[in-house]
Write a structure and sequence with these properties.
alpha/beta, 248 residues, 8 helices, two-stranded parallel sheet, Rossmann fold, 7-stranded parallel sheet
Length: 248
């Protein structure tokens, strides 16, 4: 049975994870921060508690380690399923080298898709019996079409998108709402130089859009909104033409 007014953020030490935690903490929700770096999670929890006086808890998990994922699932179930769970965790490091490096390739797929699916699978029996909760998955516009610079990363996100579609079909519509967030570029140090500033948005803006989309029980949302139209155009370009375009 879902615990009311509790939000679990997996990948909570990222800039988007912090912004989402702050968004819900400001509303008086109890927050559970989940991630791999335990010390960083503690710092995030202390900062959040000072800023908002919210009740904050932490759970450690390494999405590349099966036993760690299983332990995390047990902790979540012990505390009770949150009303909102948001999977922010992801990796893009080494995307350009991934086609040539099986270690990087495996890491990208494990963190962006396989580890997430492992954790959700461990929670599925409880989710089927839940009512009124939401799981949001932070995917990427990179999953809409394979591009030469990051197609391994994009393939992992495309797999996540398909997984979300399957979950929506599997779970009763009145039980758990599944939201796929197709995120464009966030204005962070990691994204510096990757795209023009007009194509970016701040983590705070993205967090507000995601929260509103969860409240409206939407299925898919592009953030920022204009990526919906950009990706629509990109998807309809014939592949013979697309692979010749100067798109990295």
């Amino acid at each position: 049975m879902a615990v009311p007014q509790t939000a679990l953020i997996l990948g909570a030490s990222s800039m988007l994870g912090r912004a989402l935690a702050l968004e819900y903490a400001a509303l008086g929700w109890r927050i559970v921060l989940c991630g791999r770096d335990v010390e960083e999670l503690k710092r995030c929890a202390a900062d959040l508690a000072i800023r908002t006086s919210a009740a904050v808890d932490t759970i450690s998990v390494d999405l590349t380690d099966g036993p760690s994922i299983d332990k995390c699932a047990v902790e979540i179930l012990t505390k009770g399923l949150p009303r909102v769970t948001i999977f922010v965790a992801g990796a893009i490091d080494g995307a350009a080298e991934a086609p040539y490096d099986p270690v990087i390739m495996r890491n990208l797929h494990t963190i962006n898709y396989m580890g997430v699916a492992h954790l959700v699978g461990a929670l599925l029996p409880a989710l089927k019996a839940a009512s009124g909760s939401t799981i949001a998955f932070i995917s990427s516009v990179a999953g809409d079409r394979g591009r030469r610079s990051n197609f391994v990363y994009g393939a992992a996100k495309a797999a996540l998108n398909t997984y979300c579609q399957g979950l929506r079909a599997l779970l009763p519509p009145n039980a758990v709402s599944i939201l796929t967030v197709k995120l464009g570029y966030l204005d962070t140090r990691m994204a510096y130089g990757l795209a023009p500033s007009r194509l970016m948005c701040s983590p705070g803006y993205a967090a507000k859009v995601i929260r509103r989309s969860i409240e409206r029980r939407r299925m898919v949302v592009y953030v920022p909104w204009f990526w919906h139209w950009i990706c629509l155009v990109v998807r309809v370009i014939p592949e013979r033409l697309f692979i010749r375009l100067p798109i990295p």
